[in-house]
């Protein structure tokens, strides 16, 4: 019962580009800074006038 079977082995490597990760990190940190800046402005000046 010797059967010759052809087996194809396919290796997949996940490519990680650190520069893309860095760009995404800078982008989202910038979004957070802008968000908290607007929030600080609203709390300090807009709501501060009503108190």
Shape: rod-shaped
Estimated share of beta-strand residues: under 5%
End-to-end C-alpha gap: 90 Å
Low-confidence stretches: none
- Class based on secondary structure composition and strand pairing: mainly alpha
Average pLDDT for all residues: 86
Total helical segments? 1
Radius of gyration: 27 Å
Helix content: 55-70%
Q: What is the number of strand segments?
A: 0
Sheet of most strands: none
H-E string: H
Keywords: Membrane, Transmembrane, Transmembrane helix
Note the topology.
Elements: H1 18-50
Question: What report would you give on this structure?
Answer:
With 51 residues, this protein is mainly α. It has a domain of 34 residues. Helices cover 65% and strands 0% of the residues. The protein is rod-shaped. The model has no long low-confidence stretch (mean pLDDT 86). Keywords: Membrane, Transmembrane, Transmembrane helix.
């Amino acid at each position: 019962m010797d059967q010759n079977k052809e087996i194809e082995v396919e290796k997949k490597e996940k490519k990680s580009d650190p520069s893309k990760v860095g760009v995404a990190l800078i982008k989202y940190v910038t979004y957070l800074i802008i968000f908290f800046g607007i929030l600080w402005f609203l709390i300090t000046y807009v709501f501060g006038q009503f108190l």
